[in-house]
Amino acid sequence: MFFTSPFKLKSKGVMGMNQRNCAYINRYNPREFYPLVDNKLKTKLIAKEANITTPALLGVITMQAQVAHIEQYIKNDKGFVIKPAKGSGGKGILVITKIEQGRYYKSNGKEVEISEIQRHVTNILSGLFSLCGSIDVAIVEALIQFDNAFEGFSFEGVPDIRVIVFMGFPIMAMMRLSTAASDGKANLHQGAIGVGIDITTGKAINAVQFDLPVSHHPDTNKVLRELQVPKWSRLIRLAASCYEMCNLGYLGADMVLDKEHGPMLLELNARPGLAIQIANSQGILTRLKLIESLGKEHNMNIDERVVFSKKNFSIQP
Amino acid sequence: MALTIQRHMTFDVPWLPGKTVTIWNVDAKIVFQAKGKPVLAKLTTPMTQSGYTQISQNATSPGYGLSFINQKSSPQTQWSIRKATGKQTLYYHIQLGVMDKQSDLPITQMPSIEEQAKSNRGALASKAIIAVANETSADANSFTTELLKMLNAKNKNQNISTLISRKKSKIELLTFLLNEAKIPNKRVGVLRLKDGRRNQHLIQMIEVYQKNSNNVITKKLYDADHIQSVDRTGLLIWDESNRSLLDITGGYKSKVSFAMIKEDAHALAPIIQNIKHNQLFDFSIHSLLIEDQALFKGILMIPLGVLIVVIMRILIGIGTSGTFMPVLIAMAFVQTSLITGLIGFILIVGVGLVIRSYLSQLNLLLVSRISTVIIMVILLIALFGVLAFKLGLTEGLKMTFFPMIILSWTIERMSVLWEEEGPKEVLTQGGGSLLIAVLTYFAMSNDIMRHLMFNFIGLQFVVMSFVLSLGTYTGYRLLELRRFKPLADKE
Ligand SMILES: Nc1ncnc2c1ncn2[C@@H]1O[C@H](COP(=O)(O)OP(=O)(O)O)[C@@H](O)[C@H]1O
Ligand SMILES: [Mg+2]
User: Fold this and answer.
1) Neighbouring-strand partners of residue A94
2) CATH number corresponding to A57-142
3) Which positions ≥6 away from B64 have C-beta within 8 Å?
4) Can you give the pTM of this predicted structure?
5) A187 CA to centre of ligand 2 in angstroms
6) Could you state, in order of their start, the residue ranges of all structural domains in chain A?
7) Looking at the domain covering A6-52+147-312, what would its CATH class be?
8) Chain B interface includes A181 (CB < 8 A)
9) ipTM above 0.95, yes or no
10) What is the mean pLDDT of each run of 10 residues along chain A (317 residues)?
11) By alpha-carbon position, which residue is closest to atom 8 of ligand 1?
């Protein structure tokens, strides 16, 4: 059959888009805090205040006049990333992984002319990638050197880990691995693979690409079930602490694991997608309901919340 | 809802159109500039004719003296005023009931044949044409058909070409030739009745009379562009006077335009309504001028379109580019008719995308890029309009109904989508939008829906409450049932 029955979905605790919008995002995410997460620059600033590590900021380009002198921001020899502050869904992100003798290369080895980079920045400034076309600024960020544990799991791109944090409790996690289709970025609708990650252990549960189950990485042939995220406890604690920082009850935190600096916060999302349920082959609703049943006066601090989550949301024995 | 039911009960406004008598409300609007002198305006109005009964007529005109002159050959409405300056607007309103039975009054008299001004040039040509037509025809009707065949032939013969170049139009020439051939005929101004239309004008046609062997006179209606006689359903013969439609002294730059609206009422209602319900209806839309009513008839359909978009997004889960873009496109479709609209839309967006892909190489700022696209869209519409006209497709001109700014944004969004996600995503989103637009079009052009939405204002609230309650719907969307299927099938 083409469709499944809504009752079956309900019994599995699967949350639909309407319910997410109505019962969680509208209820738990106050409008006034949206700008903090919708603008990556602001997120970086408040993260700094809250002592949450983020990738190093190399520069901010706010005016067209700066575009001509772009090289002064990107001299860094380890590679860099240019992204629109108000972008979403991986739009407008340019990842340069190698700089050799003043020439720039993308992760797939293609050279990028400096004029192309300048044009890209101009497009960012004019608001091509931002929501509803409002003018924007371009952020230049240091390239993340991903942890060796992910070698072979991600193709030409940095994998990131999406953690859904509800009222400060880490609820569900998913690793996103880039593929040839997703062009060095780890956004699911562009063709990245989503791997459900067990909250307790950091081990892979299940994997999907384009909402359909997969067992091997299509480009590297690695068996996805073998994935294990190192430094998991630190990562998940960092994600949980984002709640205090931005006051959003229903939050998607995008984390990365850097070789040298360990877990870092890449960005926050006020409207995290639903594919994480498919990647975990679990509905999210039962977990949300459990947290809601705790009420507001539980008085747990970050560590207690992480422990509570680890105890209750484990799948593997 | 209650309001709707109440309206049905008290005013007998029927639930369904068609089961009842159809009434056409037609407004003629006269606009002219007065010279500051006495003004006398005479408008020719429709005679009783087969297919229609006149229910009422009236006229509005501040400060003017009014009289309805009912001459035998042609009724007229006459406005007069001592002195008027500046722009003047006069309205004449007529209410006609549609009769099922087509029964013409017996025609007692042939129209007289006009003496032609004698001129030598062209006389030979017309003689020749008449001779040819006479040869191949048996009576007045077949004669007219023969003439029309010649007039509309791809390769016109020499004689026709000379005459056409001397007459103003085909219809002029046809009248001239019929008169030359001593065939009784009459020029009439005809109104095509279409619900909710404004700014319409009379179409010139010719009635050809013929007496058969039993001395019964019949007549048939022709326009100059078709060979066969015209079917009279949906047509109202407004002006049979053989004089001008509007005769005005003391004014200049005069113009007459028509607006009309269809209404369905109980067989008895038209009469009762006139006497009794007039005041009761007074605060409804029905008390507005027909021109404005026609406008409202369109506007009141929009909530329905909005409802469909909401259903599609919340219950089905189809994404569109630009939330309410489909509604605007559907409104354009209502004006252009579906097929023309679809072809026009795809053409413009398609060509627009090609040109836009060139623009993206120029590194323009967003605002100037959008502006360029807008200008481009306007030029494209103009180009297609002219092209279509040259090819003889008058439909092409209707493209001007498309909302240009919206089209430009559509092109811009689609092209960004194309660059980032590839053509597949453009097709799904564009296809989704078009699908919804077509659905909306069907809902908005549906006669029953039009009738209901227009006559029962209360339904607007019903639609609103639907939209509101859909806003709190937290169940699954149809497409999610498919998306989460692998999840449900696990274990
Ligand atoms: N500093 C960086 N170094 C390497 N890759 C990055 C960096 N920033 C972003 N990316 C890549 O781009 C993807 C999307 O970035 P993110 O900041 O989450 O933007 P968005 O809001 O568009 O999802 C990440 O998943 C990652 O793969
Ligand atoms: Mg992201």
Assistant:
1) A82
2) 3.30.1490
3) B39, B79, B80, B81, B90
4) 0.67
5) 6
6) 6-52+147-312, 57-142
7) alpha beta
8) no
9) no
10) 79 86 88 87 89 88 84 77 86 85 83 86 82 80 84 83 91 89 75 88 87 84 83 89 88 90 90 88 88 82 86 74
11) A81
